[in-house]
Design the sequence.
């Protein structure tokens, strides 16, 4: 009988765990005690799931290794950040494989979902073979399935996102088991015989997006310098059949600011110094400064005295619709203005730690700085006096 264990219950692991628990006996394992304790009470601090979605009969949450002993299908969804010197930080994956080395049995299947650079799955599998004296694709099996989950996106969810499954073994029974499990997660599975290619594919998906947003951020800044209407420029260019449209903005989160450094790290190690892959990073990181300068200029031209400035910053999480503030430049912007103006409020309905912004409060502020694009914020933009709006990315201005 299949007993699934999902290791790491964050933005990726929890949704996978909840989906699988509807069909299989499942354990959700996390080293974070608070995460486990709250999930046991049916509370998702990431604000993605309700109590009734979390309380599933076949599902147990645990932080104890002993509880994993009887599992035979492990899915690893732990973080893959970068270090201060922007190198891949694989210590969470290392810890997960270390854990597996203590409990791995013949017949077990391991799937890595975390974003990595080509060769990572293989190198950890090799270490695992050494420690356990069990052979990969013989005594146990390894698979790589890059995750494309898009938190906060109601249209693209686990059900309808194509899911890549890379398995290099030849055991048809193992392939069937993996397929049957993942069929419960996603309707469309795409198979590959190469784990390294699947690892690379995941990386380039995010690199491409990071670069495209950077290009639009740069076009936006050029348009401002040349006093051109950015939205009109893009509207016109979009009428060409092969023009691809992106929205400028502040790039944050766990993926885009991180993943380019994974591929360039291994490329450099193999003797290729990347020229394009990281070029979006500096532009996208600069946008925080662009927003601050843009806002300071708008405030200055209003001629309102400094001690009379009351500013409300709308949109703080790294993107609209999520509670995640990791690598959010918007939080840095909020901190900057809090230091500068006594009366600065940050507002984001997706962040539980900020207060609500009631309609009658809107009059209190003389500036609203919009940092995210989405229907809830558009509603506010529609309600406030246009002269009060500071809209560095022209989301609501025309
Ligand atoms: N968040 C996204 O939108 C997204 C999308 C696609 C891919 N990814 C990738 O998926 C992976 C996970 O990302 P996330 O956003 O879910 O991270 P997260 O930080 O939200 O969750 C990770 C969880 O793993 C736990 N953890 C850390 N080390 C552990 C260990 N040794 N054993 C058990 N639990 C452990 C943490 O406590 C945390 O709860 C990353 O590689 C990320 O790049 C994320």
Sequence:
């Amino acid at each position: 009988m299949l007993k699934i264990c999902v290791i790491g219950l964050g933005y990726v692991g929890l949704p996978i765990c909840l989906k699988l628990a509807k069909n299989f006996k499942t354990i959700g394992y996390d080293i974070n005690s608070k995460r486990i304790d709250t999930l046991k009470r049916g509370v998702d601090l990431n604000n993605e799931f309700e109590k009734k979605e979390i309380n599933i009969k076949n599902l147990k949450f645990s932080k104890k290794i002993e509880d994993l002993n009887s599992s035979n299908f492990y899915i690893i969804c732990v973080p893959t950040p970068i270090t201060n010197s922007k190198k891949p930080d694989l210590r969470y994956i290392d810890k997960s494989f270390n854990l597996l080395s203590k409990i791995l049995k013949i017949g077990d299947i391991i799937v890595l979902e975390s974003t990595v650079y080509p060769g990572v799955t293989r190198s950890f599998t090799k270490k695992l073979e050494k420690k356990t004296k069990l052979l990969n694709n013989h005594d146990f099996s390894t698979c790589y399935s890059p995750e494309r989950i898009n938190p906060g996106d109601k249209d693209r969810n686990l059900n309808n996102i194509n899911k890549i499954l890379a398995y290099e073994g030849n055991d048809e029974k193992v392939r069937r088991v993996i397929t049957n499990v993942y069929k419960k997660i996603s309707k469309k599975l795409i198979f590959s015989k190469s784990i390294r290619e699947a690892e690379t594919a995941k990386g380039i998906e995010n690199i491409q997006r990071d670069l495209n947003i950077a290009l639009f951020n740069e076009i936006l800044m050029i348009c401002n310098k040349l006093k051109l209407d950015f939205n009109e420029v893009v509207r016109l260019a979009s009428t060409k059949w092969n023009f691809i449209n992106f929205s400028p903005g502040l790039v944050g989160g766990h993926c885009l600011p991180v993943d380019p450094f994974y591929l360039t790290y291994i490329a450099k190690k193999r003797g290729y110094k990347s020229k394009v892959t990281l070029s979006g990073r500096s532009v996208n990181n600069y946008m925080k400064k662009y927003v601050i300068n843009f806002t300071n200029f708008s405030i200055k031209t209003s001629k309102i005295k400094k001690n009379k400035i009351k500013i409300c910053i709308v949109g703080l999480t790294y993107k609209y619709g999520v509670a995640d503030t990791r690598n959010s430049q918007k939080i840095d912007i909020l901190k900057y203005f809090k230091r500068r103006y006594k009366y600065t409020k940050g507002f984001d309905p997706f962040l539980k730690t900020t207060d609500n912004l009631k309609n009658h409060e809107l009059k209190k502020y003389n500036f609203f700085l919009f940092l995210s694009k989405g229907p809830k914020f558009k509603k506010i933009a529609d309600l406030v006096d246009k002269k009060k709006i500071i809209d560095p990315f022209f989301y609501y201005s025309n």
